[in-house]
Amino acid sequence: MSPGAKGMGSGTSRRTRCLRSVYSGHRGGINWLCLSPDGDHLLTCSEDGTARLWKTKGLQCCALLQGHDSYVTHGHLENDVAYTCSADHTVRKWDMATGGCMHVFRGHTSIVNRVLVASGCLFSGSYDRTARCWSPDSGRQLQEFRGHRNGVLALAHFSAQDLVPDYALSGREGGDFLVTGSTDCTVKLWLVPDGRCCHTLRGHQGAILCMLLDVPGRTLFTGSRDHTVRCWDLATGEQTRVLQDHQGSIICLEFVNRHLYSGSTDRTVKCWMVASGECVRTYKSHRHTVSTLQFHEGVCEFLGVSQYQERKSYCVYRKCRLVCESLRHHIWHLEKSLQGT
Q: Mind listing the pLDDT tens digit for each residue in 256-292?
């Protein structure tokens, strides 16, 4: 999306109008962003080795999160703290009020790609072929999930108690589960307390680049470099449907009102009816890879980022039904990591 671009098309020549606000300050490309649950703050993670916390009203940078020794790959806002991970092999926890680093989580031996906070735990995934579980308060590593043959790019979490009452996974009732997607073309489901892999989902012919859970529907959606989205039954690990229409890798997924949206390197977003697997709409207005989709508060306000070639600023677009990001740096690192697969 170029600086002058408007909202995503609806399949016709009609374009949605957007309001644009420019935030600048980073000295390198924007690798990731996260909007706080209340919509008041935006976290940006940059190639310059820092993360910044912004107030969405007033365009003000309220905290510079500085301390990583290499570029920051991903971030997450949770209550009054921020989490970031980096190519320096660490995860950091930050006080949003002061910008001070509260903990450094050490243990990974390669680039950390993702962080996830769930059920009072912090999870991370890395190119070192592992995912790890940490205590957010003490910084202590609680569990290591080892079994993938290549890097872990995607994370998801669910609790058995969130599923239907008669659901049991591998003969157990209750418990927390971590889902990991890897460049080895597999998805693994792990029991968090003991780190045991209870399911390995096979079927993709390319790296797993993104995942999404529909816990009430007991369904896991996975997007891959093989140009497909696949649907899996969480109870059995069975592949239930393959969604095929994209001409490029699937980078991001979003699930709203029984519709699944997928963004791809083919520069399109597709809308699928999950029940039938039918592609009901294709959005074609993007000029670059679509790497993030985000819905915010139903249908009113959504957030997107478009990274410019000078890699020094980005735009926040509001009041768009679907907004996408063109984060070419993320794809560059992804393709580089896949060269050895």
A: 888 999 999 998 889 999 989 999 999 887 777 876 7
In-domain check, residue 4: no
User: What is the 3-class SS of the chain, one letter each residue?
Assistant: CCCCCCCCECCCCCECCCEEEEEECCCCCEEEEEECCCCCEEEEEECCCEEEEEECCCCEEEEEEECCCCCEEEEEEECCEEEEEECCCCEEEEECCCCCEEEEECCCCCCEEEEEEECCEEEEEECCCEEEEECCCCCCEEEEEECCCCCEEEEEEEEHHHCCCCCCECCECCCEEEEEEECCCCEEEEECCCCEEEEEECCCCCCEEEEEEECCCCEEEEEECCCEEEEEECCCCCEEEEEECCCCCEEEEEEECCEEEEEECCCCEEEEECCCCEEEEEECCCCCCCCEECCCCCCCCCCEEEECCCCCEEEEEECCCCCEEECHHHHHHHHHHHCCC
The length of the chain in residues reads 341
Task: Find where tokens 């993938």 sit.
Answer: 148
pLDDT of residue 243: 97
Angle 118-129-33 (CA atoms, 0-180°, nearest 5)?
50
Domain housing 319: 245-341
Domain-located, residue 265: yes
Residues contacting 336, CB < 8 A, separation 6+: none
The structure tokens 């735009």 sit at: 315
Q: Count the domains in the chain.
A: 1
CB atoms within 10 A of CB 236: 11
Average pLDDT of the chain to the nearest whole number: 80
Residue at 52 is within a domain:
no
Tokens 């294709």 locate to 282
For residue range 160-171, what is the model confidence (pLDDT) as tens digits? 877 655 444 544
- Please give the pLDDT value at position 258: 86
Quote the Cα angle for 86-91-92, to 5°.
110
